[in-house]
Amino acid sequence: MKFPVWAMVFTVLGAALLFRLGFWQLERSAWKASLLESLEKSSSAESLSQPLLKEGQSLNALQEYQSGFIEGTYLLDRSILLGPRLHDKVPGFHLLTPLKAGEAVFVNRGWVPKGYSLPAAGPVPVRVAGLLRTPEAANFSVPANQPEKNLWSRYDLEAFALSRKLEGVLPFVFYLESERFSEQVPFENPSPTALTLRPSLSNNHAAYAVFWFIMGGLLILFYYLRFHNNFSRKP
Q1: Are 231 and 7 a contacting pair, CB within 8 Å?
Q2: DSSP symbol at 228
Q3: In a 3-state reduction of DSSP, which class is residue 47?
Q4: If you ran DSSP here, which 8-state letter would residue 189 be given?
Q5: Residue 85 burial (CB < 10 Å; 0-12/13-18/19+)?
Q6: How far is CA 175 from CA 53, 130, 134, 197, in A?
Q7: Residue 46 has what pLDDT?
Q8: Is the dihedral of CA 176, 182, 183, 184 positive or negative?
Q9: Cβ contacts of residue 52 below 8 Å, gap of 6+?
Q10: pLDDT, tens digit, 9 for 90 and up, residues 215-235
Q11: Which residues are CB-neighbours of 42 under 8 A, at least 6 positions away?
């Protein structure tokens, strides 16, 4: 019986790939653990009381999952009603208001009921505290946006910015924890209901790593039982 060269080559390559996947999952597990720790810290009152921007820093320097407060101006008359969105089984919208602080970022200020009218007021000074995140991705059941009718069902920050004549908008959404106006805002009735929209993340990568290591080990075992063991018995 000839030595199964090709079977050995495919087994070695396959096992190497499976073990590499296992080690990659271990790397992902360490990264996810660090991310979860960072998110835990970002939810603390101490983190939210710190300025998100350092002196001289622009919004463009910010990254996802950073938290703190930003001082700027709300462009209330350029807000977006994104929906429908339910809150306590009541239909309504998420209110997205552009915040101008050099560049601009859309702030998810929370939920407003159906029938809410966007305020006609112009720029209003404000301090907002919260968390930067990539906006939620829409699934196939969410209808397409209709900018020409000002109907928005899914996140599309570029389309939002274009419709509201904004430039330099961040590719993240600032999810609001609290806001503080330097003057009264009597024209909003009712006020938005702030939502806790922090990401719910799990870390199952160690289990995935074990799976790939087992698959690699089984591949080597099958090769041994099928080829090597039979070959060694031949006279």
Answers
A1: no
A2: I
A3: helix
A4: S
A5: middle
A6: 16, 5, 10, 7
A7: 64
A8: positive
A9: 62, 66, 67, 68, 69, 70, 132
A10: 999 998 888 887 765 555 555
A11: 48, 65, 66, 67, 131
